[in-house]
Design brief:
By secondary structure, the protein is an alpha/beta fold. It is built from 13 helices and 9 strands. The radius of gyration is 22 Å and the shape is globular.
């Protein structure tokens, strides 16, 4: 039976039926799983479902967001640290690999790991052991690993940005989540489910959606997938003038994010970042908001792509602020 709380997995179409069968097949095996799919397709939700339906369900489910963690903290966050390992490390700190125990460790946006951390993750998967930062004793690693990314990892391997041996270690069993535009037959069901959930959170009556609301939604590409759709429905509910029926008039769609920033094409990604920085007047935080990325992720991608944030400047142009 489908749980309405799994908003990213609502739908009775072919793509979602295939996805549910894949989850059921992989839930109760210890195999490492690689989750691929665009931003907003529900990768973390699938990881939680894999854990909840496994024999490990009573064990911890630990998330490590490789994009959100500051580069200087990723290693200690993943593997922990001993007292004195670095300035400010006054007591033993257990990392997420250790906290996961015999449960599940979800590595979100695994493509954002630095080459050094990629090597350490490879060792973790190969040898099933690790050391805390500043420690000398090897500790066993017993958790199941689920890795997720919106990046085309095969393209990243070809470009030399991701280790090939690590890719094969992660890509034992693969689940690719469909984009919303590839399963528009689910839109009516998905809109109703999201509307009911959001209305409950806002302490409002569940809305009804007119046919033209659904038609307008079907005409939009939804680059942000289910997450973007949920935000659009919430805006419609918040701004609703009155009545319980939402029409196309209430669907306030934002301009789609620039293509390329979430793909595996470095040239397109670089172009999208440069344009976003230009639009934001050189402010990294503003550019990150335009691209729908955490600021730390954008800074890392600027460095990875070898971009010069200051870029070529017009002699008469005002100074730019790259302090965001």
């Amino acid at each position: 039976m489908q749980d309405a709380r799994d908003e990213g997995l609502v739908g009775s179409g072919t793509a979602m039926s295939v996805l549910r069968r894949r989850i059921a097949r992989l839930a109760d095996v210890p195999t490492t799983v690689l989750l691929l799919g665009e931003t907003g397709t529900g990768k973390s939700q699938v990881a939680r479902m894999l854990h909840a339906r496994s024999k490990r369900s009573s064990e911890p489910f630990i998330v490590a967001d490789c994009a959100a963690l500051a580069p200087s903290l990723v290693e200690s966050e993943l593997f922990g640290s001993e007292p004195g390992a670095f300035t400010g490390a006054h007591k033993l700190r257990r990392g997420r690999a250790e906290l996961a125990g015999r449960g599940t460790l979800l590595l979100e946006e695994v493509a954002e790991l630095s080459p050094r951390l990629q090597a350490k993750l490879l060792r973790l998967l190969q040898e099933r052991r690790f050391e805390r930062l500043g420690g000398a004793r090897a500790l066993p690693f017993e958790a199941r690993v689920v890795a997720a990314t919106h990046v085309d990892l095969e393209a990243a391997v070809r470009a030399g940005r991701f280790r090939e041996d690590l890719f094969y270690r992660l890509d034992v069993a693969r689940i690719t989540l469909p984009a919303l535009r590839d399963r528009f037959e689910d839109l009516p069901e998905l809109i109703d489910a999201l509307g009911a959930r959001i209305a409950q959170r806002l302490d409002r009556e569940s809305p009804r959606f007119a046919d033209d609301f659904v038609a307008a939604a079907a005409a939009h590409p939804w680059p942000g997938n289910v997450r973007e759709l949920a935000n659009a429905i919430e805006r419609a509910l918040v701004l609703q003038a009155g009545g319980a029926v939402l029409t196309a008039h209430h669907l306030d769609l934002r301009r789609p994010l620039r293509a390329g920033v979430t793909g595996g094409n470095p040239a397109h990604e670089a172009e999208a970042i440069v344009r976003a920085l230009r639009d934001a007047g050189g402010n990294v935080a503003g550019a990150a908001r335009r691209l729908g990325l955490p600021r730390t992720t954008l800074r890392r991608r600027i460095e990875r792509l070898g971009l010069d944030p200051m870029g070529p400047r017009d002699a008469n142009a005002p100074g730019r602020d790259f302090s965001g």
